[in-house]
Amino acid sequence: MMKATISKILRQTRLLFLADKLRFYIQKYKNQAKNKSFQSSHKEFVFPPDYLMYESFNISYESYYKSGKAAAERFIKSFRKYNSAENVKVLDWGCGPARVVRHIPGIVPNGSVYGTDYNQNSIEWNKKNIADVDFNLNGLQADLPYEDSFFDFIYGISIFTDLSEQLHYEWKNELTRVLKKDGILLLSLQGNLFKTILTDNEIRDFENGNLVVRGNVKEGHRTYSAFHPENFVKKLFSDYEILEHTDSFINNNGKPEQDIWILKKK
């Protein structure tokens, strides 16, 4: 509860971004030796600039490499449980500096792979350094340059977590537009386990089924945070079939993993 109170004060005083920037430099220093060692043993692998990596994930090179590859394999495996189409089109919505999407072409060699993000620096770096993925710079508003019913599979990892309630509905509608009928949508969201970092008032809202949003920072940035009760998600995606919902849990490093929702467009 103390962390929630401190976070609220930092947001109200507009100091949260500066605090997060300071945290970046601390993490950069703490990981410097390990990152240098890991990079020296993976010379063929191009890592993004440190802050791009930190903005979208964390600043561990080993974690960026291993978790990205594992997530790509896991997501495609989940997709294939429900869809056996050939020559599939896959979209990483909110791809950041390509932690996951750079591994997808090797898993779906006959497919077409796309990544979109609103961070211009990430997209510019991706276009210069990542092969076999078509990258697009989108705005914060829900407007993608793809045709209706274009994708077989869309995944978004901790993207709705950085959006206001209004943009939840607008982006849900846009993702629905570009996803094929019977297409699969996989999302990670901050579910029930994340109540532990909320204030008492926020917990009451959450338990009443309301989306809890912590703003007062730039929407879309990692410091903007939304928390998703199960009833809200079911209401938001009422026109989808819920195939799987895996509750958030504490991983081996003692950190919470987000809820995973796998949905099918009707």
Structure report:
By secondary structure, the chain is an alpha/beta fold. It has one domain: 3-Layer(aba) Sandwich (Rossmann fold). The chain contains nine helices and eleven strands. A seven-stranded mixed sheet has the order 3-2-1-4-5-11-8. It has a two-stranded antiparallel sheet with strand order 6-7. Helix 7 links the parallel strand 4 and strand 5 (179-189). The longest helix is centred in the first third of the chain and has 25 residues, at 16-40. It is globular, with a radius of gyration of 18 Å. The chain starts with a helix and ends with a strand. The model has no long low-confidence stretch (mean pLDDT 91). One of its GO terms (molecular function) is methyltransferase activity.
What topology emerges from the helices and strands here?
Blueprint: H1 2-12, H2 16-40, H3 50-56, H4 61-82, E1 89-93, H5 104-107, E2 112-117, H6 120-129, E3 134-137, E4 151-157, H7 165-178, E5 179-189, H8 200-207, E6 212-214, E7 225-227, H9 230-236, E8 240-246, E9 249-250, E10 256-257, E11 259-265
Task: Summarize, please.
The chain is α/β, with parallel strands linked by helices and 266 residues long. The chain has helices at 2-12, 16-40, 50-56, 61-82, 104-107, 120-129, 165-178, 200-207, 230-236; strands at 89-93, 112-117, 134-137, 151-157, 179-189, 212-214, 225-227, 240-246, 249-250, 256-257, 259-265. The model has no long low-confidence stretch (mean pLDDT 91).
